[in-house]
Amino acid sequence: MSRRPRLRAEEARRRIELAAIELFAERDPDSVSLADVGARVETTPQAVHYHYGSKAALREASLTRLIALITEALDALAHDLPSLTLSSLTDRAFQLAQDHPVAFRATLIELLRGDFADRLRHELRARQGSFFATATTQIVEAQRAGIVRPDASADLFGVAASLLLLITIGGSPDALPITPDNAHTVRARIREACRMILVSLLVEPDPLLR
Predict the structure, then answer these.
(1) Which of 35, 59, 73, 206 has a CA-to-CA distance to 119 between 20 and 30 Å?
(2) Count of CB atoms within 10 A of residue 100's CB?
(3) Same domain, 95 and 183
(4) What is the 3-state secondary structure (H, E, C) of 17-62?
(5) What pLDDT, in 10s, does the model give residues 48-61?
(6) From CA 59, how far away is CA 23, in angstroms rounded?
(7) Which residues contact 184 (CB under 8 A, 6 or more apart)?
(8) H or E element at residue 170
(9) What number is the average pLDDT over the span 116-124?
(10) 13: domain CATH number?
(11) pTM of the entire predicted model
């Protein structure tokens, strides 16, 4: 296959998987058909079937892409972790929710459906240089320095700091996308989630709660 057809095929799969992410979040996955996904991207169900072979395979591919989108978004936090305060963590999380409304909303919904949390946790741990890996290293260093409580595990930090930010954005998937009408409420709930994370982990959280 030449480079151009391969790129066209990759772009087609990207568009199909993003449409599937949206549809699986909007409705019960069992009620979504290949025709529904095809209609969302203005193509035929035969074209969708050509790329995936079955709805189950498309469902799997869409979850894989969703996890990639979320982990990439969380990676944006990694280089800021050493200097994060409650205010800056809230600002960054709020910005992520604004920048990735479909991915965050879909993640919130998928987290309520079963084993998606375990899958996301596994992917976070597997990504070298990711938010999880950076957070794990820094929490161990902070424990040695007496900043983070000794009983707070690195695993807890990586999972809780990632998933709590997702689960509590706006309090529910219906809060996304963020609009001028709900922005204040969403930011307040994100701030409270971030505050809970810091209070649960730090020996003396007060200096960061500003």
Answers:
(1) 35
(2) 20
(3) yes
(4) HHHHHHHHHHCCHHHCCHHHHHHHCCCCHHHHHHHHCCHHHHHHHH
(5) 999 999 999 999 99
(6) 10
(7) none
(8) none
(9) 78
(10) 1.10.10
(11) 0.76
60 lies in some domain:
no
How much of the chain exceeds pLDDT 70, in percent? Answer: 74
Structural domain range at position 26: 1-53
Q: Which residues contact 195 (CB under 8 A, 6 or more apart)?
A: 86, 209
- pLDDT tens sequence across 16-46: 999 999 999 889 999 999 999 999 999 999 9
Q: Tens digits of per-residue pLDDT, 63-86?
A: 999 988 887 777 776 666 666 677
Nearest Cα to Cα of residue 178 among 99, 112, 106: 99
Residue 195 lies in a domain: yes
Do 78 and 39 share a structural domain? no
What Cα–Cα distance (Å) separates residue 148 from each residue in 40, 110, 140? 47, 31, 8
Which value, in Å, is the radius of gyration of the alpha carbons in the chain?
Answer: 19
**Shared domain check, 143 and 113:** yes
Domain boundary among 12, 33, 53: 53
Determine, yes or no, domain membership for 58.
no
Distance from C-alpha of 147 to C-alpha of 193, rounded to nearest angstrom: 20
pLDDT surpassing 60 at residue 87? yes
- Among 67-76, 164-173, 179-188, the range scoring the smallest mean pLDDT is 164-173
Could you tell me where the DSSP H helices lie in 130-204? 131-144, 154-167, 183-201
In 3-state terms, what secondary structure has residue 179?
Answer: coil
Phi-psi region of 33 (alpha: psi -120 to 50; beta: other; left: phi over 0): beta
